[in-house]
Amino acid sequence: MNLRRLDLNLLVVFDVLMRERNVTRAAQSIGLSQPAFSNALTRLRERLGDELFIRTSDGMRPTAWALELSGPISKALSEIETALDGANFDPMTSKRVFTIATLDYATLTIFPPLLERIRVEAPGVSVRVIKPSLFPGEYLDSQDTDIALLNWDDPPERFISETLVEEDWVCVVRADHKLASQKMSPQIFAEQEHLSISPSGDAKGWVDEALAEQGLKRHIAFVMPTYGPAASILETTNLVLTCPNRIGQIMSETGKTIALECPLAPPFNMQALNMIWHSRLGNHPAQIWLRDILRAVADGKIISKP
Predict the structure, then answer these.
(1) What are the tens digits of pLDDT across the range 24-43?
(2) Mean predicted confidence (pLDDT) in 214-220
């Protein structure tokens, strides 16, 4: 099909009707009268040679080909809208959706102040979080992700990595745990039963490597993929969780758990959370804005509310 002969506004009509499945609501959402919307739909049907939508008692039902077209058309329109929005990015009026690939460390520590800041500076902006793939660069290459927040300090040259957070690790136990009243050596640490957080399910990590260097080994009693439910488990067991300091402090806010000094020193790459983006988006106004507020909230900088 020759795109020069197709009114691309008709694709907007298609996309909104695919979402609404109702001609009246679809027309209202893009500011057209119902007759004008119906006329545009007729033109698109003639141009594509397919009925596209069948009127039923439950609304406008898409044909098989309409369903096949919906994904690519929606994605293309979204990318065009994002590109135009980025060229003249105004946080106060933007409706942009930012996608960030990260694990739950950032959602627990960085995102609460990030969302509060966005509420004040950019009330129309939304944030979507996705789980990183085994190779997080694929999301950045395809621009399905704006930024990744990960332990990845040395990505390929096409990506830029900046340390966003750097912190020590602590051991979290219930408030009346026997460890709360004694200094913990690596030997005492290794003798405990442990809770391990592993998104991949692989229980062993830098803690086990550090213990092995001293001829020690720990017993991992429970492995889970996220930090979210960990506090409730620690409160009712003798398990020890080794985690970044910010996570430990959040868990200890209730007073039911406490964060203790970890007897092992984590390697540098496990102390840092890196902000990674594609170099081709380095000067993108919307990307610059997002990186700036991520730096600010990571540093604990708060803006006054209006």
Answers:
(1) 999 998 899 999 999 999 99
(2) 97
- Both tokens of residue 225? 């993929």
Predicted structure pTM score: 0.70
Residue at token pair 């690939």 = 101
Q: Which residues contact 173 (CB under 8 A, 6 or more apart)?
A: 179, 180, 234, 238, 239, 240, 241, 257, 258, 260
For residues 239-249, average pLDDT? 96
Q: How far is CA 213 from the centre of its chain?
A: 35
Contact 230, 224 (CB under 8 A): yes
Q: How many residues does the chain have?
A: 306
**What is the predicted pLDDT for the residue at 33?**
93
Segments of the chain assigned E as strands: 53-56, 59-62, 97-102, 126-130, 147-150, 159-166, 169-174, 193-197, 219-224, 240-244, 257-261, 272-278
Q: How many CB atoms lie within 10 A of CB 161?
A: 17
Over residues 47-64, mean pLDDT: 92
Please tell me the distance from the alpha carbon of residue 130 to that of residue 144, in angstroms, as a whole number: 10
Let me know: does 235 contact 256? Beta carbons within 8 Å. yes
Largest CA distance in the chain: 79
Confidence of residue 83 (pLDDT cuts 50, 70, 90): low
Please give, one letter per residue, the 3-state secondary structure of 41-86: HHHHHHHHCCCCEEEECCEEEECHHHHHHHHHHHHHHHHHHHHHHH
φ, ψ (nearest 5 deg) of residue 234: -65, -35
Output the pLDDT for position 152.
85
Q: Which residue has the tokens 């979290």?
A: 172
* Sign of the Cα pseudo-torsion (222, 226, 229, 231, in order): positive
- One DSSP character per residue, 88-123 reads T--TTT---EEEEEE-HHHHHHTHHHHHHHHHHH-T
